[in-house]
Amino acid sequence: MGPYPSLFDECSVIRARGELDLTTTPGLVRDLEDVRRGSGPPFLIVDLSGVTFVDGSVLDPLSAAWDECRRRGGWARVVYVRPCIGLLFRAGAVTGRFPRYASVQDAWRGLLADGREQWDSAADQPA
After folding, report:
1. How far apart are the C-alpha atoms of 100 and 97, rounded to whole Å?
2. Are 8 and 41 in contact (CB under 8 A)?
3. In angstroms, rounded to a whole number, what is the distance separating the alpha carbons of residues 14 and 3?
4. 82 burial via Cβ count (<10 Å: 0-12, 13-18, 19+)
């Protein structure tokens, strides 16, 4: 079993809504950079369940946040429900980093959308 927060409050949660594209992603990027620069816990959940469209502009900032959380001994997980996000992650070859979580609570518990648990560090490795 790998590292995980003992309380949900020890997690940073970033929520995005609507469309994330080249013109709207900078707000998400700022939020991710704030978490990366902070001295808080290295556990991050990015909730994209309210996102209706996403393009490749989110891949680099999400990956940078994932790298920083891992470097500090934590993890970064992404909640998403729309198939377009899964397709983007597959096309960007980051499904190993960002498997699907159905809710923020499931992400915190490490319960993947298909019901598997993901606590070991090997499971968080890039595709």
Report:
1. 10
2. no
3. 20
4. middle
* Residue of 101, 102, 103 lying closest to 119 (CA atoms): 101
pLDDT in tens, 60-106: 999 999 999 998 888 999 999 999 999 999 999 999 999 999 999 99
Distance CA 103, CA 99 (A): 12
pLDDT single digits (tens) 37-63: 767 668 999 999 999 999 999 999 999
**Residue whose token pair is 């949900």:** 8
Are 12 and 108 in contact by the 8 Å Cβ rule? The answer is no
Q: Nearest-5° angle of CA 57, CA 69, CA 56?
A: 10
Q: Which amino acid is located at 109 in the chain?
A: R
Q: How far apart are alpha carbons 78 and 124 in whole angstroms?
A: 12
